[in-house]
Write a structure and sequence with these properties.
alpha/beta; Trypsin Inhibitor V, Chain A; TIM Barrel; 3 domains; 13 helices; elongated
Amino acid sequence: MRKILLFIISFTLVLSLLGCKSASTVNIPDLKGIEYGDVLKWSFDYDINLIVSSEYNDDVLPNTVFYQDIEPGTKVPVESELIIKYSRGYSLDEIIVIPDFTNFTKEDILEWLEETDISKYQFLDSFDLSTEAGTYLGYEIIQSKDKDEYQRKDEFTFFFSKGFLYIEDVVEDTLAIKGVNLGGWFVLEGWMTPDLFNGVNGSDETVFMEQKENAEEVIENHWDTFIVEEDFIWLKEHGVEYVRLPIPWWLFGEGVYSSSLLYIERAMVWAEEHDIKVLLDLHTAPGCQNGFDNGGIAGVLEWEEPENVLKTVEILGDIAEHFSSYDSLWGIEVLNEPGWSVNMEILQEFYIDAYEIIRFHNTSIYIGFHDGFRNYDDTWKRFFENNDFRKVFFDIHLYQTFGDGWGDYDILDHVAFVHREQKNTIANYIGIVPVVIGEWSLGLQGNVYENLSQDSIIDVKMAFANSQFNEYNKTFGWFFWNYKIDSGSYLEWDFRRLVEAKLIPDMY
C-alpha cells in the first residue's frame, strides 16, 4: 500500500512542477518523492544545474528523490545549482523477518518477496516421496556473510514438490555383456575432445588433419595419452570386461590420414594383459557412410558408390587378418551407423560380403551389423532368418535426446519410453538374432532438468540410468557411450565420471 500511495503522490507532484519559471528566476518545487528522471527533465526545462548523488533508502520508492538542499517555494536565479539525492532502492542490509511458509503457494511467496523487496530468489522443484506435486517443501538462504539475521541482499531458494519419482534398483545378476565404448580415441569427434580442435573449423578428423597445425604430431600425442594402460586397469577393477573400440578405415594410413595401427595394436595388448575383450568397430568408411563427423567427414555421404563399398569389404578383410592373432579380439562390427538414407539392398548385400570375408580369416569371433537407424524395418528379420549366419549380433543404438520429438518429455515419460518402446524394440528380435545396444548414454534434452534442485537432477540421472540398465541387461549385451569425454561437461556421456560420482553402479 505504501508503494501505491507514494506513486500517487509522486504523480501529483510532477503536475505541480509546471508553471514555476519566470524570465530570470525559478520557483523551486517540492521534489521529494518524484522520480529522478522527471526531476532531471525539469532541470533541463528550467535551466537548473543538478548536483546528483544516490543512497539506499527504505522510506521512498527506488529511483525517487528524497533530499533537496533548497527549500520548496524558494525563488532562485536560472542556472542555479540544486543538490538532490535519489534512492538507489531499499537498503540491501535491511534485516528480513522470515515468516512461516508452511501451506504457502508459489503465488503467496511471490507476493511476500515483492512486498519485502527481495530480488535475489529462485523457485526449484524437487521430487518428493511423500507430497503431491505443487506442495511447498522448504527454503534455503545463501547469506552474503556469516550472520544470525537474514538481509535483503541474501539469495533465497524455495522448493516445491515435483511429485513422486521412483528410482528402481538395478538387477545386476545377468549374463549380458557389459561394456563401454572407447570413442574419441582413434576416430576424432570435436565435441569429445574440444581442446584438440582449437584452430580447426570443423569437428571431424578429415578437417582436423587438413587444418590443424602439426596435425600428425598432435594426433599421435592424442593416441598416446587420451587412453592409457591405467584406463584398462580401471575398467577391469570396476567390472567392465568388454570394450567397443571404434577404428577408422584409414588405420593403415591413407592420404592425409596418419596410421594409428601401432597404437591400436598396443590397445589390443593392454586388453589381453588385463583380460578385457575387444569389439573392433569400423567407425568410418570410404566416402563416409552417414555424413556425420563420427563417419570421418561431416556433410559427405558417398559410401554407396560401388568402389567405396568394395574397398570397405577389403579393409574389413585386412582388419580380420591382422588382428585375429590377438586373444583379446572378441568381435568385429562391420560398419558403424550407416545412414538411414543408405539403400537397404546395398547395405544388406554389403553385410553378407563383409561377413564372408571376415569368416574367411576368422571362424570364431562375433560379427556385428548395425540397424542403419531402421530397427523397425521387418526386412531385418528376413535378413537374419534367410542367411546362415553364425555368431552374429544386431547392433541398435538407443538414444533419447536427438531430434525435436523429445522436447515435451519429462523424466517420467523417458522412463516409461524405455520400459515400453525400447523394450518392444529389443523384444522384436528375440529368437531371431542376439541384440546388442552398441551405444547408449544418460543424455537428455535440457527441458528435463528445468527448475529442478540439484538433488532432483541427480535423481533424474539415476532413474533414467537404472531403467536402461534393467532393460539392456536382458539383451545379449550393451556398450555405454562413452568411457570418457575430454571435457568438464557432458557428464551424462562419461561412464568413468558417472561411476565415480556414484550415479551409475560398478559392474560387479
